[in-house]
Amino acid sequence: MSRRTEQIGGTRQRIVDAAVALHGSVGPARTTIAGIAGKAGVTRLTVYRHFADDEALFSACSAHWLSQQRPPVPAEWSRENDPLERLRVGLSDLYRFYRDGEAMLTRIYADLAELPEAHRKVLASRNDHFRNVLLEPFPEAATNNRLRATVSHGVSFWTWRSLCHDNGLSNDDAVDIMSTLIAAAAGTHPSIAP
């Protein structure tokens, strides 16, 4: 019985590995069950036996990929009470995650409209949480729409990608730029060395 269980587990893992590889190379929208089956060395029916629908397969892929990453830790950002220091700590952590996972995250965000609805909601909720943690120490956060919008812009993967991937900035430079922009939206002007 345990050998059969190991075989089933091994087959399931091959399917997940194949799906992760395809999501990272062609994106979720272009990943097909036939492609996953071929890459995993199984039949399409075997894929369906292990994963009843796209949402179950995408959940397994996400969990597996995230288990191999070092995700951002907003609870650590919250240790900083100074709003500008929290921005630096939080954006540095977030941008490190974006750089480390750039290939996969580019595909996921590019295919966002094609993801299962539950996963779109998780990504939106996560970004809202990042924004809220960074806004928390700003006294004017509840009433300053420009500040909220600018912090939302700062936590966006596409903002990081534009600054760092497209324009060649380091993460530190991107953090400095976004911190300065957010401080201006908040009405404070930190002295940040160029």
Automatic annotation (TrEMBL):
Q: Name the residues that span the membrane.
A: none
- The HTH tetR-type domain is annotated at 9-69
DNA-binding region ranges: 32-51
Keywords assigned by UniProt, alphabetized:
DNA-binding, Transcription, Transcription regulation
| PROSITE patterns reported for this sequence | HTH_TETR_2
**At the top level of its lineage, which domain of life is listed?**
Bacteria
Q: Does the keyword Phosphoprotein apply?
A: no
What InterPro entries has UniProt attached to this entry? Homeodomain-like_sf, HTH-type_TetR-like_transc_reg, HTH_TetR
Keyword Transmembrane belongs to the record: no
- Put simply, this protein is called AcrR family transcriptional regulator
Organism for this UniProt entry: Arthrobacter ginsengisoli
Taxonomy, top ranks, is: Bacteria, Bacillati, Actinomycetota, Actinomycetes, Micrococcales
